[in-house]
Amino acid sequence: MTLDKRDKRAISEVRMAKAAEFLADASAAHKEGRHRTAVNRAYYAALNAARAVLILEGASPETHEGTITILSLRFVKTGLLPMDIARKFKTLLSRRTDVDYGDFDTIDSREALESVRSAAGIVKTIDKVRKKMLADLK
Questions:
Q1: Does residue 110 carry a pLDDT above 90?
Q2: Cα gap 37→46, rounded to integer Å
Q3: FRET label pair with 4: which of 72, 96, 101, 105, CA 20 to 30 Å apart?
Q4: Which residue range(s) make up the domain with 124?
Q5: In 10 A of CB 30, how many CB atoms?
Q6: Are 35 and 112 in contact (CB under 8 A)?
Q7: What whole-number distance in Å separates Cα of residue 31 and Cα of residue 121?
Q8: 121, 129, 131, 54: which is closest to 89 by C-alpha?
Q9: 121 vs 3: CA distance, rounded Å
Q10: CA–CA separation, 16 vs 7, rounded Å?
Q11: pLDDT of the residue at 54
Q12: Smallest Cα–Cα separation from 45: which of 104, 88, 107?
């Protein structure tokens, strides 16, 4: 399916709104001591931010790993996003996988807060690039 500029813009806005909502959920969950939920929501905030910028390039990866890989190739490798984004993303994915599927895995307040802060940085950085792309999309 080919998307026109208007469609790309609309999808990007919806995905970034989800990223902001999930980031707020992550922060609230951390404050309430729900560390697993904080890590989960932090990861999904970052994932939705990545998907928000990738759609502007016409990319819609089907997997989480695919999203990280394409983001790295199209935005990190080209210098549009800093190198540490991919590393932070992989850490968030690893933690999210552990808390979602690991029966006996635990996460402490420090790790949860680190995840929330990392996701906030990713979302903010990606949104700056996304806004520039939106301005150029006209």
A1: yes
A2: 14
A3: 72
A4: 5-136
A5: 22
A6: yes
A7: 18
A8: 121
A9: 29
A10: 14
A11: 97
A12: 88
Which residue type sits at 96?
R
Structural domains in the chain (count): 1
CB 26 within 8 A of CB 115: yes
Quick one: CA torsion of 103, 109, 112, 117, rounded to 10 degrees?
Answer: 180
d(C-alpha 28, C-alpha 42), whole Å: 11
CATH number at residue 47: 1.20.120.330
pLDDT at 105 over 90: no
Nearest residue to 83 via CA among 40, 125, 39, 130: 125
Q: Tell me what the pLDDT averaged over the chain comes to.
A: 95
Identify whether the C-beta of residue 48 lies closer than 8 Å to the C-beta of residue 67. Answer: no
- Euclidean distance between CA atoms 109 and 116, whole angstroms: 10
**Closest C-alpha to 42, from 137, 122, 129:** 122
- Provide the token pair at 82: 């800093």
